[in-house]
Amino acid sequence: MQNTAWASVEENDLTIKIETEKLEAIIPKKSPKHWMTGIEKGSFLDKATGFREIGDGLMVIDWLMEAGSDEDYGDQVIALDGDGVGRYSWHENENEPDRQYYTRMSHGSSHRKRMVEGPQLCHRMKPVQPEVIHGTDFIAVTTTYQYEYAAPGRKTGSRWTQRIVFPRGERFFVLMDRIDSVNDSPEMFLRSDMPGCIRHEKGDAFSEIYLSYLSGPEGVRIPSSEFFTPFPPDLKFGYRRDLNRTPTHFIRAYHLRDKQTGEEGPWLAGLTLEPSVVYEAWCSQRPGDIIVMIEEIHGKPVQAGDSFSAAHIVGYFDAIEEMHEIYDQYKGHTALTADASGWQLVR
Question: pTM of the prediction?
């Protein structure tokens, strides 16, 4: 355990627990409660209010992907990732095949995509040994992993790096996801949950969602009642870079509330600090109790040896105006460095 007056780091075989004056968070190393990447489910605590994240974790990472169809080989890839036919189990439309319905509700049907490399890191990644730096006014944790298999005709071995910095005195962390690719692609992107999914029953855990990049410069505030019935990602509340004007800010947030009392809590928000890196993003209700907030970054031509990254701020805010103020302070950055002397966002 490492301690200072303002923070502590406690590490064991399973996790790294970060506690600061403002926050608590756990980063998994193996055998997580839910997903292997990002911040572990239920561990992100706002000490000022006592509220926690209500989904399955924050900044959770999926595959390395590209636009296109995998119709000729999709079953091979799915089997390798441990997601066999049993996964397709939503029987809400008897006139639509099970797998087809699952795919439409999970990913939409208007923009076909396929995996370049796997596995789906969130639940298939093997144990990792993150590097921890305990600075005088920050804590940084860096996790790296190489993809283990690839689609037919592709190489394996692209590297994913996730760096998380907890600055002293803040109710948020700063995060970078980076890919160093060993493959060529006309339109490669990385998929993640940004900031994370929302678990609820008829809006009991949140009152509204805020998306800064839709419905004009003020964004849109969506009441929880819009998420009582399932709908696919491409039906509403979606963003595609090729169909939308690039916004000045890219913020996704949900307004927490106490399940027992209904009392309003803080906003939990994710800020992507350079809006132009967002390829596609959606906010949709799947069958069951989960709202998915998928964000895909880059979506541009890549050659073997190239890298791309995105930088985000994720944390608790008392008002939408506060999110925008923080955004203006840090906007325009796509990468994040850290060593013993300090941390820095990079353009």
Answer: 0.93
